[in-house]
């Protein structure tokens, strides 16, 4: 089998006496959505932070496209192709939706030689940025400042920014949070197609979305993965039902 795009081996992180991630091993393969589920406080966000480089593991290895990520900071990992969209917004609120995406396109293109050119009028940036807004269905809101967008629209914008960086894998931490049924349905459809562009590690509490999308699911409880499998395997696993899914299965 081809080497996984992303491979975590025995990742550990403690906060004082608390083992937030306690020997987590998992992989993300080409073309798949791998969902990471588990109760509140299980360590899901801590794990995502360790992959993207904002938290350093105490031990264990993270390999992305065959390369050990240990020495790389967050920005370097983004440049390597690790794309992400987070619970906590990273938008520039006073800038328009379009300009937020243009900044990401500029970062992708490598901005040093265009340092003195004003970003607002640069067609090599507006074209690709508009294309990203169209993909997420936000083109009609291109000129609206990010601060004035609805919660759902801001989530769409964050995904457009992640796309603009042309990642080789996506890390999504609760993208459905606060979207409502209609928004979740739309985003589910969008992520469904996205997996063919780059595989997705998806942390999500919305089980309808997880069951609709996941090729594989890993269940994290108290920092440990208690099961990895297909949707059917996970839904029928007695330990998973006891620890997390209960009636949702
Ligand atoms: N910086 C920190 N310092 C101390 N404890 C922390 C820190 N970050 C997380 N924790 C603790 O680590 C544990 C795992 O938290 P984490 O946010 O990773 O869980 P989670 O599975 O993402 O939860 P949720 O589903 O509620 O987002 C929790 O007990 C949390 O309180």
Structural notes for this entry:
There is one protein chain. The protein is an alpha/beta fold and 249 residues long. It folds into 2 domains: 1-81 and 168-249, P-loop containing nucleotide triphosphate hydrolases (Rossmann fold); 92-166, no CATH class. It is built from 9 helices and 10 strands. It has helices at 44-52, 74-80, 97-109, 123-135, 151-164, 180-194, 207-213, 231-235, 238-245, and strands spanning 6-15, 18-28, 33-37, 59-64, 67-68, 82-85, 169-173, 200-203, 216-221, 224-229. The strands form 2 sheets. Strands 6-7-8-3-9-10 form a 6-stranded mixed β-sheet, sandwiched between helices. The protein has a 4-stranded antiparallel β-sheet with strand order 2-1-4-5, covered by helices on one side. Strand 9 and strand 10 (224-229) form a beta hairpin. Helix 3 packs across helix 4 (123-135), helix 3 (97-109) packs parallel to helix 5 and helix 4 packs across helix 5. The protein starts with 5 loop residues before the first strand and ends with a helix. Bound molecules: adenosine-5'-triphosphate. Adenosine-5'-triphosphate (ATP) binds at residues 15, 18, 20, 38, 40-46. Pfam families: ABC_tran, BCA_ABC_TP_C. Keywords: ATP-binding, Nucleotide-binding, Transport. It comes from Aquamicrobium terrae. GO terms for molecular function: ATP binding. This is Branched-chain amino acid transport system ATP-binding protein.
